[in-house]
Amino acid sequence: MRTANAFNAAAVHVVGRRRWNRRGAMVTDRYLHVRHHEDVAALTDWARDEGLPLLGIDNLPGAEPLETAELPAACVLVLGQEGPGLSDAARAACRTTLSIAQFGSTRSINAGAAAAIAMHAWVRRHAELA
């Protein structure tokens, strides 16, 4: 939530259980549209109706490097759950999966950090920074 607020995202979409860590949002959810989708299929239906491609963010074999990917001006960045990352259903629903270059021994960062990097990559390509 805080990251989405910092980058002025149009909305945050929560897939699955309606519960999430509100304390970590530091009240920024009051300034964002928060939509809940029962499952990935519901998110996919919504995105199709809105004409928005789903782009997965996960370090999976075969993922395209985020650093060189063409990001559409209008899209939905899909991040997985801490630990397991994108589910099989989410990966299948995404037009592509993008990876974030990492060089340490872990090759893993938390979802908030991944979201910030992905949103900043979008900003570098599309935001008017006047």
TrEMBL record:
Keywords: Methyltransferase, Transferase. The keyword Transport does not apply. The keyword Transit peptide does not apply. Residues 1-120 form the tRNA/rRNA methyltransferase SpoU type domain. This is tRNA/rRNA methyltransferase SpoU type domain-containing protein. It comes from Aeromicrobium halocynthiae. The lineage of its organism: Bacteria, Bacillati, Actinomycetota, Actinomycetes, Propionibacteriales.
